[in-house]
Design goal:
The protein has a two-stranded antiparallel sheet with strand order 1-2. The protein has helices at about 5-20, 20-25, 25-55, 60-75, 90-135, 140-145, 150-155, and strands spanning about 165-170, 175. The radius of gyration is 34 Å and the shape is elongated. With about 180 residues, the protein is mainly α.
Length: about 180
Amino acid sequence: ISLSQWMREYEIYNKVKQIGFFKKYRVTKAYKFWKENVRGARMNQYGHRLEETCPLLHRGLRGSVAEVRGLCWQINSWRLFSFSSEDTVSIYDFQLYQDGQADIISRKLETFGQSIRGTVLRTCNKSLQAFLSDNGFSGAAVTNLKVGQLSNQHNSTIKSLNEGEEIILPNQKRMSY
């Protein structure tokens, strides 16, 4: 490369460096990289917070909430009153027909209530199983434990369950609520 060609390229290089885009390139690139990392970290943090606090997004509750919403949506199709605008009936026949319709709806509501109770019980059992296994109870002890037994077994040990207070169960590690 000749000296005159090098000088020419050097001048072009300096002129290009004076263009705003190239002048601010390093700072802009570093800022953009930092901004994307901060945004990603915030999205992860808020996503985890939403999963913990919002029942629709909580992994353990998502299926159950969808099931309950589906059951509630079915109620929209139930007809509390049923009549035909084409037929003329006596008040007595109308009342008999509506009483029959009310019986049908009450049976459906009883089934609905049982379905909801079953869903809630399954969800509570799953949540209790996960909580117990996360806090040192494992294996057969977890599968044989029923809902009310934990507080009954350790009633003398557990005085109160204030939030953030640590309790120690016999032969177990520390747990915090």
